Amino acid sequence: MAVHKLKTKFEARVFDVRTGTNIVLLNEDEAHENGIYTADRVIVERDLKQAVAIVDVSSTMVKRGEVGLFADIAEKLGVKRGDQLTLSPTGQPASIEIIKKKMDGRMLEPKEIETVITELMDNKLSDVELASFITSLYIRGLGTDETVALTKAIVNSGKTLELGVHPVVDKHCTGGVAGNRTTMLIVPIVAASGLYMPKTSSRSITSAAGTADTMEVLAKVELSLEEMKRIVLKTRGCIAWGGEMNLAAADDKLIRIRHPLRLDPKGVMVASVLAKKKSVGADYVVIDIPVGRGAKIESMEMANDLAREFIVIGAKLGMKCEVFITYGRDPVGEGIGPALECRDVLKALQGSGPSDLTQKSCKLAGAVLELSGKVEPGRGYAVSLDLLQSGKAYEKMKEIIEAQGGNPKVKPDDLPIGQYRHQIFAEADGRIHLVDNQAVNRIARAAGAPKSKGAGMILHVESGDKVKKGQLLYEIVSESETKLSEAIDMVEEVNAIELEEIILGRMGENRVFEWKPEKAEK
Questions:
Q1: Measured on CA atoms in the order 71, 74, 80, 86, is the torsion positive or negative?
Q2: 213 is catalytic
Q3: pLDDT per position as a tens digit, 448-460
Q4: Within 10 A of 475 (CB to CB), how many other CB atoms are there?
Q5: Could you tell me what percentage of the chain is helix, strand and coil, using 3-state DSSP and rounding each to the nearest 5?
């Protein structure tokens, strides 16, 4: 890049906007006169601190002799308005050629993948370049060695939890099922058995609630890594929001690019999940892959392929994984939305919650107990159910809630449920064919969830139920009349419950665990 006339001194102008990368804004005429164009790189320096930034240009936002800095790079360099900065041109990041290599269909070396993740964390890559990287992985795929290298690079991009104890266990669900708050039962069951389970969870992106949103009804979830370590060593369990602790930090940056594109390359998904498990020191991991219309994974072929990948990659990272492919066509539990789902959890811990939530949670918790060697094969479910029914899991959950700054004495009826309600009734006799996860989430979000903790839906039927005309199907719950009205309008757009007049045989009680993955080669 031939740049000889670029001024070395610029006056800083700071924009209080975060972009997720290092971006500086130059006057368009001045930049072009000096051979600088959009997406070129410059080194920005102030008082011996420096960072590589991506150039954008404007004819109105900055004057000649000024450089606009967005909040990310301004904070990194400690720059305020009026400071004098030195700018000098630099070449393209090494990742550009690596991305092109992958786009050509060639395998990447571990060092090359590490370079991309390092430059990602250093904010040297633009969103266009990152989108190209994700797209190349989506089209070309990732080999086993590439996935392992990507997982390790993501782990190394952030902090790690060092508990100094073993075994450490964890679980993950690939998602898409409304109300699926099994984590909030599994963690206290497993912790009550004596195992250590430091669970990091996500907030909702498109659903009515994430586990972190639901746990936040009961306790603080934005914990530091040091707080999490203290809590887990004291209570053996914890349910925290993963975004606060800088674990596997590159994953959040990759998700920011993947989500708008709706691209979820298999290798990237596996690396994303297992990096977070590795970063908390997990030795054993149970993974739940719900399958069915409306779930994130809709085909058995894809589920089995993903299951094998988790097992193989997990083993290469020193973790033993077991995968369950579960029934994912319907929501789990009755409440949809943070407080309503939390109410289901507390009732289940007290022995009176929804049976599907209890059953699935005990099966997954039992799998954790068996996989870790805590109990002998075949006894995991019974032991988990006993820990739940005896009240030991509930007592453990109260310990965890208190350790995370919540009120351990809170009762299901104490939770803040919205006061505005609207009921939906069956328009004909028939049998419930499907309770659509995506439609349920859209209605609950229109009602205000998850931002409004007490908003959402209460389901009164499930697939296979025979209903009569005029029977209550579900209730919409909101904390405001306006949001309730929006949710009612949403009902007209989506069909949350599909009714069929043909009488079908009711699904068996074990429908939650209808499938298991084919055996994976290690």
A1: negative
A2: no
A3: 999 999 999 999 9
A4: 15
A5: 40, 20, 40
Query: How far is Cα 93 from Cα 3, in angstroms, rounded to an integer?
Result: 17
Calculate ∠ Cα 230-235-240, nearest 5°: 65
Report phi then psi at 329, rounded to 5. Answer: -80, -20
- Per the structure block, which two tokens stand in for 22? 């290092």
pLDDT at 1: 41
- Same structural domain, 396 and 460: no
Predicted model pTM: 0.87
> Annotated catalytic residue: which of 127, 264, 305, 465?
264
Alpha-carbon distance of 422 to 428, in angstroms, equals: 19
Q: Name the residue with higher pLDDT: 123 or 494.
A: 494
Helix spans in 108-242 (H): 110-121, 127-140, 144-156, 183-192, 211-215, 225-235
What number is the average pLDDT over the span 378-400? 97
Mean pLDDT in residue range 271-294:
95
Query: CA of 338: how far to CAs of 354, 418, 430, 437, in Å?
Result: 16, 11, 31, 16
Q: What is the mean pLDDT of the chain?
A: 91
Confidence (pLDDT) at 516: 41
* Distance from C-alpha of 17 to C-alpha of 432, rounded to nearest angstrom: 48
Query: Helices 380-389 & 183-192, crossing angle to 10 degrees?
Result: 90
CATH code at position 490: 3.90.1170.30
Q: Which CATH number do you get for residue 315? A: 3.40.1030.10
User: What is d(CA 241, CA 230) in angstroms, rounded to the nearest whole number?
Assistant: 16
- Is 168's pLDDT higher than 50? yes
